[in-house]
């Protein structure tokens, strides 16, 4: 695919998410979220990306099932557009955090975005590994519930039934679409070492190692925040009664 087409798709995506962010700022905002209006807009924009990408990634494999058999060479415009679209989002989100958040608060996500943009950029520019990139984007299925969790917490709805149900779905999809997917991708990369050039293999290996470490840490935080702490509170209440 021509570089100009990649730049056009990615640039359009950056513009789209800028418009989404602006649109969110025009909508009513919960009083509790007004203390950090930028974070509310940022998470809401991320939620939109996750929702679109989750459906799009599943459709890629539904419309082109042969991609599951060959993650390296199988090409489709639909999948290429998805990866380019996501690069645009990560570029937009990177710039949004650089401008609006302290480096000490955002360096982990900024580093994550650099790794993703680099790996996805290699894929769209070489027209290879698109299947691998789309598999990686299946994690966005979990991100829908992960971002919804943050939205509910900012809206002071962390004690309701909706939050509890979302927490359970979030943890379940986290295991299936983040931890399991990353484990499968790492295994695939090792088994197909001879088919992958050194540069791509190195980028993939480093990327997988970073993502795995970050996701294990986040999983522990979610488990402690949404389940272990709530169980402790319930135990205390039972003792008091």
From TrEMBL:
Q: Which GO terms describe its biological process?
A: membrane assembly; phospholipid homeostasis; plasma membrane organization; regulation of membrane lipid distribution
Q: Which residues cross the membrane?
A: 45-65, 77-95, 107-124, 130-148, 168-186, 198-223
TLC domain: residues covered: 35-231
Localization per Swiss-Prot or TrEMBL: Membrane
Alphabetical UniProt keywords: Membrane, Transmembrane, Transmembrane helix
InterPro entries tied to this protein: TLC-dom (IPR006634), TLCD (IPR050846)
Q: Which GO terms describe its cellular component?
A: plasma membrane
* Protein's organism: Oryzias sinensis (Chinese medaka)
Name of the protein:
TLC domain containing 2
Q: What is its main location?
A: membrane
């Amino acid at each position: 695919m021509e570089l100009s087409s990649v730049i056009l798709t990615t640039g359009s995506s950056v513009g789209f998410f800028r418009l989404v962010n602006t649109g969110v700022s025009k909508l009513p905002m919960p009083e509790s979220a007004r203390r950090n209006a930028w974070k509310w807009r940022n998470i809401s924009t991320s939620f939109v990306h996750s929702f679109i990408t989750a459906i799009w990634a599943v459709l890629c494999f539904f419309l082109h099932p042969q991609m599951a058999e060959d993650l390296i060479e199988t090409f489709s415009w639909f999948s290429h557009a998805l990866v380019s679209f996501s690069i645009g989002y990560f570029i937009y989100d990177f710039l949004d955090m650089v401008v609006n958040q302290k480096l000490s608060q955002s360096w982990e996500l900024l580093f994550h975005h650099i790794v993703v943009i680099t790996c996805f950029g290699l894929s769209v520019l070489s027209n290879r590994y698109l299947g691998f990139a789309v598999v990686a984007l299946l994690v966005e299925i979990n991100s829908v519930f992960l971002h919804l969790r943050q939205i509910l917490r900012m809206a002071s709805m962390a004690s309701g039934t909706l939050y509890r149900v979302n927490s359970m779905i979030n943890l379940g999809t986290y295991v299936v679409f983040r931890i399991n997917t990353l484990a499968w991708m790492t295994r695939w990369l090792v088994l197909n070492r001879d088919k992958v050039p050194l540069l791509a293999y190195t980028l993939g290996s480093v990327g997988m190692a970073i993502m795995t470490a970050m996701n294990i840490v986040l999983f522990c935080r979610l488990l402690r925040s949404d389940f272990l702490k709530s169980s402790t509170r319930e135990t205390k209440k039972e003792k008091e009664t």
